[in-house]
Amino acid sequence: QVQLVESGGGLVQTGGSLRLSCAASGRTFTGYAMGWFRQAPGKEREFVAAIGWSAGSTYYADSVKGRFTISRDNAKNTVYLQMNSLKPEDTAVYYCAAVPNYRYYSGSYGRDQEYDYWGQGTQVTVSS
Length: 128
Known about the structure:
The chain is about 5% helix and about 50% strand. It has one helix at about 100-110, and strands spanning about 1-5, 10-15, 20-25, 30-40, 45-50, 60, 70-75, 80-85, 90-100, 115-120, 120-125. Strands 2, 4, 5, 6, 9, 10 and 11 form a seven-stranded mixed beta sheet that branches. Strands 1-3-8-7 form a four-stranded antiparallel beta sheet, with no helix packed on it. The termini are far apart.
């Protein structure tokens, strides 16, 4: 079992920045790639970014490419999402999740049903 706890959400103006953190505990962090998803009111949960175990590969949704950066510190069992140039349409609850490496490297990183563990979410609100 892996427990994931997100933090760092909040209210920010358009063009501002936030850094989300996701701390993992419990079962070893080893062997898991990590992803960030988000869900806005009335919308389905959508993929934001993912990173492999070794941090050698990353993937982003087109909507955040060039503005968001995912990273991880395996020594701290923590994954981050640096969000810059935020827009009102980035407003959502952001979730981190863990997916086994073999599913990640098979190309399934963008499908939420492939992820085994989820955090409780952190709210990000971008005001216009």
